[in-house]
Amino acid sequence: MPKISMEMAILTSIILGLIMAFFNFGDIFALVIVGFVAVFLTPDEEASYKVGALASALLGLVYFVVCLFTPPVLPYQLPNAVVIGVGYAIDGVFTLLLGLFVTLLIYGLMGAIGGYFADKLFKSQD
Questions:
Q1: In a 3-state reduction of DSSP, which class is residue 3?
Q2: Exposure string for 45-66, b = 16+ CB within 10 A, e = fewer
Q3: How many Å apart are CA 125 and CA 110, to the nearest integer?
Q4: What is the rounded distance in angstroms from the CA atom of residue 122 to the CA atom of residue 99?
Q5: CB 56 within 8 A of CB 114
């Protein structure tokens, strides 16, 4: 396995994930590839499925932040939360946080699967 630091391996795999998303390649399988590449590039002493989970979770966090500030195209005008009530806005914040939690969980799980495969396939057996 190449001897790149864990931080650079995670950054490289995140960039690979962004490139795959730009070309619309892989979908959920791309998360497994990101975890696989992150673990493959780390040294044997630091290589673990947790590195792949961290890389995919960070990629999910990047997607979440980008999509948070990208407005959707809707065929109608959404009502103002002040007109509906403050409770409706609080429900929206709860939904946002729940979406973040589920995103990190799913992305981390897929990256851990890819990291586990890379760990079992390429880690030197001492």
A1: coil
A2: eebbbbbbbbbbbbbbeeeeee
A3: 24
A4: 34
A5: yes
Q: Are 39 and 56 in contact (CB under 8 A)?
A: no
The residues, any chain, with a CB within 8 Å of residue 106's CB and separated by 6 or more, are: 60
Q: Residue 24 carries which side chain, given as an amino acid letter?
A: N
**Model confidence at 1, in pLDDT bands (50, 70, 90)?**
low
d(CA 41, CA 48): 11
Instruction: Name which of 75, 67, 60 is nearest 13 in CA terms.
Output: 60
> For position 45, what pLDDT does the model report?
84
**How many residues in the chain?**
126
- More reliable by pLDDT, 58 or 81: 58
Domain range annotation of the chain: 6-71+78-122
Burial profile 13-43: b = 16 or more Cβ within 10 angstroms, e = fewer: bbebbbebbeeeeeeeebbbbbbbbbbbbbe
